[in-house]
Amino acid sequence: VNLKIAKIEQYRPKHRTRLVRITTDSGITGWGETTLEGKPKSTWAAVEELSEYLIGQDPLRIEHHWQHIYRSAFFRGGNVLMSALAGIDQALWDISGKFYGVPSYQLMGNATRDKIRTYAHWGINDLSESGLEKSRERLDWLQKSGYTAYKSGPAGKWRAHEPPARIDEFVKAAYLMREWVGDDVDLYFDFHAKMTPALAIEVCNEIKGMHPGFVEEPVPQENKDALKLVSQSVPFPIATGERLLSRWEFREIFESNSVAIIQPDVAHCGGMSELRR
Fold first, then answer.
1. Residue whose C-alpha is closest to residue 240's, from 160, 248, 249
2. Which among 76, 83, 187, 264 has most CB atoms closer than 10 A?
3. In the 8-state DSSP scheme, what is residue 213?
4. Is residue 164 within 8 Å of 95, Cβ to Cβ?
5. What is the DSSP string of 223-277?
6. By the 8 A CB rule, do 201 and 238 touch?
7. What is the C-alpha to C-alpha distance for residues 216 and 9, in angstroms, rounded to an integer?
């Protein structure tokens, strides 16, 4: 059977969420996500441009299309192209699985695990009475849902240097989180690359006594040397990866041993094809 891509459509189910649906001439459809936080119109335009190449092509030639889309233009990579390519790649894998009558992961070498543990977003960002009440209500709901791990982060903007009161407020909240959930639950933090290495090291060492499972992006992820400096200065794992876009960017992190945990985002790093590489 010679399949052809007949139609590519895009959807906006939520304010920042973008989805792409690819339909073949035989009626098989595949879905992918092209969401790019802060730039929703950009990936939409990128998919429209890439559609000019994809319409009429064989959807099963996934690797060929990935390489063509990535390499054919003068400028390569970047968060817009890689996010658009990620959604298209996901949709093509979806089509392939449906065409061959198997889950897509079986075409990629089958499953590595039977289940994956997940965490929920929960934290204490407001130490007022009403803020603590809201945090407690959400924690109760999440615990009833079966979660045993949570991730939070420092609220608001952080400067290169913050006064002791600002740091102490976050540290107090972190220890209170541990007090509420006990020692059988994992707690993680995402600093969203808000801090300088010196500030990140100071804050991380202040919270080490409540034993966080990891701290994600304590400093900007593009600075592997700064990540390594923080990693070598704290007693728990440092993580990064959701804003790294290709195997070449991850390669620098691996070779420098800058972090203990990598977190590639399948919707940004070029899709499942690039993630597997």
1. 249
2. 83
3. S
4. no
5. -HHHHHHHHHHSSS-EEE-TT--SHHHHHHHHHHT--SEE---TTTTTHHHHHH-
6. no
7. 35
Strands (E), 28-101: 29-33
Do the first three CATH levels of 5-108 and 120-240 match, i.e. the same topology?
no
List C-alpha distances in Å: 131 to 72, 179, 181: 52, 16, 17
Q: Residue 73 — pLDDT band, cuts 50, 70, 90?
A: confident
DSSP at 146: T
Place of tokens 């079966």: 146
DSSP-derived pairing of the beta strands 238-240 and 261-262: parallel
CATH 1.20.1090.10, applies to 120-240: no
CATH of domain 5-108: 3.30.390.10
Q: For residues 6 and 29, what is the distance between their CA atoms, to the nearest angstrom?
A: 10
Q: Cα(42)–Cα(16) distance, rounded to whole angstroms?
A: 11
Of 72-76, 169-173, 200-204, 241-245, least confident by mean pLDDT is: 72-76
CA 82 to CA 70: how far, in whole Å?
A: 8
